[in-house]
Amino acid sequence: MDWATVGVIAAVVGLPLAALATWATIRTIPPKRRLGIEMTSTRLFTRDKASGAADRLWISHATFGVLADPTVVRLSIRNTGRAAISSALYDRDTPIKLHLGVKILELLEASNALTTQVGPPAEILDEILLVGPGLIGQQEWLTYELLVDGDPHLTIEHALIDVEVVEIDPAQERLAVTIGRLTLKAVLNSALEVVTPGPLRFLR
After folding, report:
1. Which of 3, 126, 142, 167 is spaced 20 to 30 A from 79 at the CA atom?
2. What's the predicted TM-score (pTM) here?
3. What 3-state class would DSSP assign to 143?
4. What are phi and psi of 201, to 5 degrees?
């Protein structure tokens, strides 16, 4: 057995040991609570007088009448941390406030990607969707679909204790996923070249 073979075996054996040590270190760190909130919107129809369609087409709401710019907004709340966010972490029972800057007409749907439970209670207050107080479990993904009239812009307000809350940019998230996949592919290719310096040979 030459030194190159010994080095490869040592590297292969060392990988699980290093992973185990890293896992043990992570377990000793207090769990971090983190929420990611993302907004996407789909405009249904714009009453653009220049196109002439405004004279022939319209969308009407039973309460608010004809809508000038009906838009469906999807708000996603993801618990990306390593611990659940309990009701006790809402300071003075203050809900998460998601300001859209335009009047919310209807809450069309509320769903949870992991369970059949809807999640924390949600309530409309003019231009604001109030979420909570209520449990948001680890890795839970809550989605709220809303009907608004206008062009929404998200502003987040919260009073959660020891919880990092960030707004997720859908475009940046897609870019990060692509970069992550390319980086992982490059790392795996490099590792394969180290373990098998020559052409791959398949045993028969």
Report:
1. 126
2. 0.69
3. strand
4. -120, 130
In degrees and rounded to multiples of 5, residue 21 shows phi and psi of: -65, -40
Query: What does the pLDDT read at residue 164?
Result: 95
Q: Is the peptide bond before 197 cis (omega within 30 degrees of 0)?
A: no
Is 58 in a helix, a strand, or coil? coil
Instruction: Say whether pLDDT at 42 is over 50.
Output: yes
Rounded to whole angstroms, the Cα distance separating 170 from 60 reads 30
Three-class secondary structure of residue 140 per DSSP = coil
Which has the higher per-residue pLDDT, 147 or 60?
147
Which residues in 121-155 are b (16+ Cβ under 10 Å) and which e? ebeeeebbbbbbbbbbbeebbbbbbbbbbbebebe
Q: How far apart are CA 82 and CA 125, in angstroms?
A: 31
If you compute the radius of gyration of the chain from its CA atoms, what whole number of angstroms results?
Answer: 25
Spatial separation of the C-alpha atoms in residues 175 and 10, rounded to whole Å: 36
